[in-house]
Amino acid sequence: MPDSYVLSMSSQVAYGHVGNCAVVPALQALGHEVLAIPTVLLAHHPGHGVPTGRVLPSGEVADLLQGLEQVGALGKACALLTGYLGLAETATVATDAAARLRRHHPKALYLCDPVIGDNGKVYVRPGVEDAIRKLLLPLADVLTPNHFELERLAGCQVTTLEQAVRAARSLIALGPKAVVVTTLSHQQAQAGQIETLAVTKEQVWIASTPRLDQVPHGGGDLLAALLLGHLVLGNTLPDAFARAVSAVYRVLVASVGEPELRLVAQSRALLAPPELALRTL
Fold first, then answer.
1. Which of 6, 94, 123, 251 minimizes the number of CB atoms within 10 Å of its CB?
2. Residue 231: phi, psi to the nearest 5?
3. 3-class state of residue 60 by DSSP
4. Where does the pLDDT of residue 1 fall: very low under 50, low under 70, confident under 90, or very high at 90 and above?
5. What's the alpha-carbon Rg for the chain, to the nearest Å?
6. Where in 115-159 does DSSP place strands (E)?
7. Judging by DSSP bridges, how do beta strands 193-199 and 178-184 pair with one another?
8. pLDDT digits (tens, 9 = 90+) for 149-201
9. Which residues pair with residue 82 across a beta bridge?
């Protein structure tokens, strides 16, 4: 069986496991080769304080993409993941990446992790949110917003499970085949639990895990990578979803109180996480 290549466009840090630094080891653990294009280069996640480093101009990101095309590497990729963009203009490069991949492989999967913000706060630069909504969302096969990003993209408040499903399906109507909502909090949720929701036009799956405090950043990046990685391996959406959520939870449990995800130490959990039962609606 030939190697499967995944193109990932996201942030890169020298220290820690966020953006591509979570995506690459996760996909590699599942047996995929990764073509990692950085959108920003930082010393560390801003949660540790103002980092040194820089946002890459969209022209540099485009040059890296072109370089992969020139050596034939891009033609090997069967999937695309986009995460933190840095600049609104970089969304145009991401649309070009999706188009190039689908010229080589018409069925190439595109997972868009619409990094906008969290906990009621937008933390991307002006224009990035609109670029995600207008350019990337319609092209994506799978969208992985957190609760806050779901509300922003759908333009409505989500306080119940039914509202979350309606909001997700309003986004599906714009292009994606599935929306996976992370860190979902709603009125019917069991006390002490956090839910992750997978929604298609016809079906809904719910994964519940105990709520954890003091966990490092990067869980969303990790889930997006594992979900895409399992889909590329041919797993069904509910199976890929359950495996990804279970693995992320195991990594987070091991990382409580730590400054960064203990991703390397938990590499076995990425490949073979404990079975996680899903609920359906």
1. 123
2. -65, -40
3. helix
4. very low
5. 17
6. 117-118, 121-122, 142-143
7. antiparallel
8. 999 999 999 999 999 999 999 999 999 999 999 999 887 778 889 999 999 99
9. 9, 112
Query: Tens of pLDDT along 44-96?
Result: 999 899 999 999 999 999 999 999 999 999 999 999 999 999 999 999 999 99
Mean of pLDDT over the chain: 96
Residue closest to 225 by CA, chosen among 87, 61, 32: 32
Where does the chain have alpha helices with state H? Answer: 20-29, 58-70, 90-104, 128-131, 147-154, 161-172, 219-232, 237-255, 267-271
Query: Which pLDDT score, from 0 to 100, does residue 2 have?
Result: 57
Which residues neighbour 150 within 8 Å (Cβ) at sequence distance 6 or greater? 158, 164, 167, 168, 171, 179, 181, 184
Query: d(Cα 157, Cα 145) in Å, to the nearest integer?
Result: 14
Query: What are 55's strand-pairing partners?
Result: 40
The answer to whether the CB of 40 falls within 8 A of the CB of 86 is yes
Given strand 77-82, what is the order of strands in its sheet? Answer: 53-55, 33-42, 5-13, 77-82, 109-112, 142-143, 178-184, 193-199, 204-210, 279-280
Distance CA 185, CA 132 (A): 23
